Amino acid sequence: MWLEIIILFIMAFLPPIFYVIWIRNTEKFNREKWIPIFYCFLWGATIAIIASLLLELGLGIPIALSSSNYTVLFFLMAVIIAPFVEELTKPIALSLKIVKKELDEPEDGLIYGAVAGLGFAATENLFYGWDAMVNQGFLYFLILISIRSFVGCLLHASATAWTGYGYGKFIMKHTRFIRVLPYFLLAMFIHGFYNFIPVYGIMTGYGSALFAALIFVIVTIYIVRKKIKTLDLLNNKNSL
Q1: Distance CA 224, CA 230 (A)
Q2: H or E element: which one contains 51?
Q3: Could you give the CA distance from residue 238 to residue 221 in angstroms, rounded to a whole number?
Q4: Which value, in Å, is the radius of gyration of the alpha carbons in the chain?
Q5: Crossing angle, helix 82-89 and helix 181-204, to 10 degrees?
Q6: Is the distance from CB of 184 to CB of 88 less than 8 angstroms?
Q7: pTM of the model
Q8: Whose CA is closest to 172, among 88, 99, 89, 93?
Q9: N or C end of the chain, less CB within 10 A?
Q10: pLDDT 10s per residue in the chain (240 long)?
């Protein structure tokens, strides 16, 4: 059993850590320091998870009591409530003093937002992996954690990167907080659309849903990394 637990932790946390290095190194110039990166990841893996669970329970219980339709409840929780709550709690990592003082370039918000999302994904992988291992068996666990280590991680990274981008601009440029709202809504849309894919899978088959999820996260993380590279290059040219 101890060997299985060790494998669970390795498979839950190692891929997100790999993606953190990958996202952080997307910048060619003035790369972010590892200590604020660590704090962002830790926030996502702990505080954001706890806050999201409490908020989702607080918002979900009244909905569950007011509706006996499981399909409607599932849709509201997965596509509306979860994206709203999780994309609200994860990017607060950027307000940590040790992170906030490192926000000096527009792409920094994208990076720190993505890292907080990856911390969240790591703990989420741990929860889902443990449930699969205990209730479904080791083979099912391996399949589930392998899929989540790619699509789940990149989803959280690419969604929260955008709220981090808006929040970073708010901190650096002292703009009105309302300017963050479009990026928050974008993050919610990305997350909500991804969570809608299992509903699509019920109608069309899980093979096509998995393919759709793969394509979606590949496209979204590509756009995020391209944005980081573009801003990084532009800032370097402007500083010369």
Answers
A1: 10
A2: helix 47-66
A3: 26
A4: 18
A5: 140
A6: yes
A7: 0.92
A8: 99
A9: C
A10: 778 888 899 999 999 999 999 999 999 998 999 999 999 999 999 999 999 999 998 988 787 777 676 677 778 888 899 999 999 999 999 999 999 999 988 899 999 999 999 999 999 999 999 999 989 888 888 898 998 999 999 999 999 999 999 988 888 877 777 888 999 999 999 999 998 887 766 656 667 788 888 999 999 999 999 999 999 998 877 665
Q: Where are the domains of the chain?
A: 2-23+32-232
Residue 124 and residue 85 in contact, taking contact as beta carbons nearer than 8 Å = no
CA dist list (Å): 11 to 75, 91, 140, 145, 164 = 29, 24, 14, 7, 26
Closest of 57, 54, 17 to residue 157, by C-alpha: 17
Q: How many CB atoms lie within 10 A of CB 130?
A: 17
Token digits for 238?
Answer: 């402007």
Residue with structure tokens 């329970």? 57
